Amino acid sequence: MIKDIVVNIPNSNLQDVISRFAISVTDHFNAHLCGVAFAHQPQFPAVGYNGIPAEYIDGLWAESRRRASTSIDAFKQTARSAGLVADAQQIEVKLGHAADTFAQIARRFDLSIMLQPEPGHAKATGSIVEAALFGSGRPVLIAPYIQQRGLKLDHVTVCWDGSRTSARAVGDALPFLARAAAIEVVVVGHQQIKSDEMPGMDIGRHLARHGLKIEVNRMKAQGISVSNVILSHATETSTSLIVMGGYGHSRMRELILGGTTRDILAEMTIPVLMSH
Known about the structure:
With 276 residues, the chain is an alpha/beta fold. It has 2 domains: 4-143, HUPs (Rossmann fold, 3-Layer(aba) Sandwich); 156-275, Rossmann fold (3-Layer(aba) Sandwich). The chain has 8 helices and 12 strands. The protein has helices spanning 15-29, 54-81, 98-106, 122-135, 164-177, 201-208, 226-236, 259-267, and strands spanning 4-8, 32-41, 87-94, 111-115, 140-143, 156-159, 183-189, 214-220, 241-245, 248-251, 254-257, 272-275. A 10-stranded mixed beta sheet has the order 3-2-1-4-5-12-9-6-7-8, with helices on both faces. The protein starts with a strand and ends with a strand.
């Protein structure tokens, strides 16, 4: 059940894109929505820091606060126009701390929503997606930065490989699947599927026991990446939402995005629900 949603509001002209999308998701579930925007405290290398005028630093700090406040005001206005009363928080953080802060906030919500990493800003927006995915313990719904319409559930594509993360994603997606007009389980492999194997049928039976009508489609990645197979198939079938596990690789004490997850985030043109 999804009753409490948080959305990360960027301090850019794309704030309206994610605000409208998040409001549409909230309407689907008759849920509560909270928007979060960050004001970033400017930081400079210790070397030469003393040579930077205090007025300049104060000006950067004031501008970041102003942009966050503008984003919050616009979010509230968009919500009011949609007939929704939404909460909003403007949070001041040191530069580089927004991602972990958002992940901690998201732990107290059923779902977090954010934009796909923007070209040219992928490091900043991508870090928030990663932090929420690996650090919140909650599902993350990512909308493309080109998203123009609200959430649609005409055709939901569930990516299944039998892993723990894909199982978690299926479980987290049940509220969405219950509202979907059509559901397809897609299994992508690099090897030819044997005639006596039925990959995907097990999770299909499980979802059918939830009263859902499921179609299972097994495909082979022939010389192309799994992400390209998924995205191409999603386009061909007019998929309106992709559900998948968000994968990571351990590097020392942190997780970094796995190849398929990273590629999906970079190339996605429809919303993706991810869980880790």
